[in-house]
Structures are given as structure tokens and as C-alpha cells.
Design a protein that fits this description.
The protein is mainly β and 312 residues long. The chain has one helix spanning 2-33; strands at residues 57-68, 72-87, 90-103, 119-122, 125-134, 142-151, 166-177, 180-190, 199-209, 214-223, 236-247, 250-265, 269-280. It has one domain: Lipocalin (Beta Barrel), CATH 2.40.128. It contains 1 helix and 13 strands. A 12-stranded antiparallel barrel has the order 1-2-3-5-6-7-8-9-10-11-12-13. It starts with a helix and ends in a 32-residue tail after the last strand.
Length: 312
């Protein structure tokens, strides 16, 4: 009888584990399935968009952020992002970031995770290419990819970098509906290094323009286990709320902000704050239906300097 009871217990445990995995898969699938009605702007959110910077235009960000769990608090800043509309429907992207890795040295996660001194320095640099291969129409969302290459510029021995090139491989969809903007998609982070895991992620964001100065949005973002060398040792799903404030003297100079907390899985906090500028000269029809704004990063005569546009 004791043997039978043990067998029944193990069978039930196996079934419960399978059901748990099915629920997690269904949750991520639900995020992806909801995508066709959605749009985003990238920073300050974790969900990105498939809209490249317009041809001949540029974007520049100065920002800081944080992403922490009970294992470790990782923060970024100062960090500098530059985007360039190199050719129609193609954007080149680069981020040069400094950051802090602060293990919380909790005995719960020892010795595998979250142990060691706090370190500050250059972390892994990001290079990327965003390509829009289907433009938005009244009945079809815009679709594109945003492949990113994380270069091993951070010190691996101090925990500031992975120590090898790693990749982010997302697919994004976007749709506009009046003052509502929707974005969503999913991707896979590919990491081949001890202590790190490759994992899927998915996001869904909705944003509304409240007035000419303020836009607010909210997203659901979920990711898999990232590895024992990271703060995100377990799966998590977060709800983030943020927005953009367009300055009166120049609508294309914007303050970006976002904060979020996990609602499922491992306890996790996310935060972002930054300044954003964009400028350039039109060299053809814009790659999206984003509203053009008049303004200049550096005021000058009406026929001089570059105009600025809202775009990410």
C-alpha cells in the first residue's frame, strides 16, 4: 500500500507540474495572440515597436533605469542611446551604458545567486537593426523585427557583463486608432554562457495621447528564467505604467518615465527615466503615420537647422 501511495503521489506531482507549465505557456501565448490590436514607442517601456526612425532623422536619449528582484538590484545609468534612420524602413541603433550590479546577499539564494560586492562600471553595449517589412494600413498592422547584438564590453568577472556576444530576437506589431496607440509582440533572448539561460519574452502595451503635452501608457510584459547569474532567476510577468511629457518650448524634447511591478512569478520591480530628442530633414515620405512636430533642438533661423519629429 505504501508503494502504491508513493506512486500515486509522484503521478499527481508530475501532472500538476505539466498543468503549471501549460498555464505559463497559455499566459505567454495570450499576450502574443492579443498583439494585432496594439502599439508602443519603445522606451520607457519594455515592449518595443516595429517603426524605424524616419529616413534621414535621428534620435538621442540620456536615461537611467533599474530592474531588481529579491536576488539582486541592477541599475543602468548614465546611459546614452542613438538611433539613425539610415535608409527607408531601416533604423540603426546603439546604446552605450554604465550600470551598477548590487547583489542583495540573501542567504535564501546562496551560494548560487545574488552573492558578492556591489560593482559599478561600463556594462554590455547594445547594437541593433530595426526593419519594418509591412507598413501599417487601415486594416493591416505594421510589422517588423528589431534584432539586437549585446557586445561584451562589461567586466564579466565583476558581473557587469555576460562575457560573450548575446542576442535579442523580437518580432513586433503596431496599430494606431485615433489617439490610441497599440503595440505588442514576442521574442527570444539567446545567451550562450555559464550561469545564463536563453529565454522567451512577450509584451503588450496600450498608450493614449491625453493632450499635446502628455501621453500615458500601460503594458504587460513577461519573461522566462534568465539564469542564476542574473537578478531574474525565475519567470515573472509585470504591469508597467509610464508616459511622455512634451516640453512646451520644443514638443520634440521629451521626458520619459515608467514604473512597474510583477503581478505573477518572481517579485520584480522595473523603472525608467530619461530625456529624449529627435531631429533631421525629410528625405522622402515618412516610414509611419506619426504626427510631425515643428521645433528644433537648438533654436535658429526659420530656414536653418533641422526640424524635430516625434518617433522612437
Amino acid at each position: 500500500m505504501a508503494g502504491l501511495a508513493i506512486e500515486i503521489h509522484l503521478t499527481m506531482k508530475s501532472h500538476l507540474k505539466s498543468i503549471s507549465r501549460l498555464i505559463e505557456f497559455t499566459f505567454v501565448l495570450a499576450l502574443v495572440a492579443a498583439v494585432p490590436g496594439l502599439h508602443a514607442q519603445g522606451p520607457p517601456y519594455q515592449t518595443d515597436d516595429p517603426v524605424p526612425v524616419d529616413y534621414g532623422h535621428y534620435e538621442f536619449y540620456i536615461f537611467g533605469g533599474a530592474d531588481g528582484t529579491p536576488v539582486e538590484m541592477d541599475s543602468t545609468g548614465p546611459a546614452f542611446e542613438f538611433n539613425w534612420g539610415a535608409i527607408p524602413r531601416v533604423q540603426l541603433h546603439a546604446i552605450l551604458p554604465w550600470g551598477v550590479v548590487a547583489p542583495l546577499n540573501s542567504a535564501v539564494y546562496a551560494p548560487a545567486s545574488g552573492q558578492g560586492p556591489t560593482e559599478f562600471g561600463l556594462i554590455d553595449m547594445e547594437l541593433g537593426t530595426k526593419i519594418a517589412f509591412i507598413k501599417e494600413s487601415p486594416h493591416v498592422p505594421q510589422m517588423g523585427i528589431f534584432t539586437m547584438y549585446e557586445m561584451p564590453t562589461g567586466n564579466y568577472n565583476k558581473g557587469l557583463g555576460v562575457g560573450k556576444v548575446w542576442y535579442k530576437l523580437p518580432f513586433w506589431i503596431q496599430k494606431n486608432w485615433g489617439k490610441w496607440l497599440f503595440d505588442g509582440g514576442a521574442g527570444y533572448q539567446l545567451v550562450k554562457q555559464a550561469g545564463y539561460r536563453s529565454f522567451p519574452y512577450a509584451g503588450w502595451l496600450v498608450k493614449k495621447e491625453l493632450n499635446e503635452r502628455l501621453e500615458l501608457g500601460a503594458e504587460v510584459f513577461a519573461h522566462g528564467r534568465e539564469g542564476v547569474a542574473t537578478a531574474q532567476t525565475e519567470r515573472a510577468a509585470l504591469v508597467d505604467v509610464g508616459g511622455y511629457y512634451h516640453f512646451k518650448h520644443n514638443p520634440n524634447e521629451q521626458l520619459l518615465f515608467c514604473y512597474g511591478h510583477s503581478v505573477a512569478g518572481q517579485t520584480e520591480n522595473y523603472a525608467y527615466v530619461g530625456m529624449y530628442w529627435t531631429w533631421g530633414k525629410d528625405k522622402g515620405k515618412p516610414d509611419s503615420d506619426k504626427k510631425p512636430d515643428n521645433g528644433a533642438m537648438f533654436p535658429g533661423p526659420p530656414d536653418g537647422g533641422g526640424s524635430l519629429r516625434n518617433g522612437n
